[in-house]
Hints:
single chain; lipase activity; Lipase_EstA/Esterase_EstB; signal; AB_hydrolase_fold
Amino acid sequence: MRIRGVLAALTALLAVTAAATPATAQPDAAAAPSGVNDWSCQPSAEHPTPVVLVHGLGGAATTNWAYLGPVLAGQGYCAFALTYGLPPGVPPLTGGFAPMEESAPELAGFVDRVLAATGAEKVDLVGHSEGTVMPQYYLKFLGGAENVQRYVAITPLYDGTTLQNTSELLDRLAEELPVVGQVPDELCGSCRQLFKDSEFMAKLNADGAAVPGIEYTTIMTKYDQLVTPYTSGHLDAPNATNIVLQDVCPQDFSEHVAVAFNPHVGRMVLNALDPAGAQPVRC
């Protein structure tokens, strides 16, 4: 699948674009992948629910969804992506660093905008990494549950990660996305919240991780180096379907970042969004 080559090209793009983009740029001004954020898109009868893509820590609309965004658009979905959580001094293409209770209202406003533009009653969420945690705050505390039908979570961490400190988390992420190495510890308010047993996680999971009425699909990888253990992504709830990538494709060694650019995962996401039209994952 040449995942490493894709990641190398992506990290080069991240570094060059972040250096060339003015620090005053606003999140919504960042370019979106092909077919994404077409505000004239009207949902079809085949795919009546718009999809909102929520990036992970260190990602952005234009980078995290460079593969999956065009795939969804090519399948006829109205796909939208935001960049959230940009504190002062952080490169505009490196989001997710603000405390998650500050980022969740950004998601709420973006979903409202998507609903208004498309005329749809609900959206489906597809999140990666932090983009599987921050939206939970939106669903539970900002009234988001009434606006969401399905929630597809890639490398989720409902139980947090056992990494010991912010520096370790940023160092591991910077191994895949070097531009993240420019972010000082003190600017990552979300990092501490992602740790197992953090106050944020305790509040988020006080009444169980799953939100009633939402159709969850979680996609994990055994080779996740950021979500430790990877089973933190297992959602024990009757409205959740849990998938371990290697249980489907044993020879797929994709880790935390690579799964967002993985055709096997892409097919799993499409199947979760359209169960009636699900197709086999061809490993």
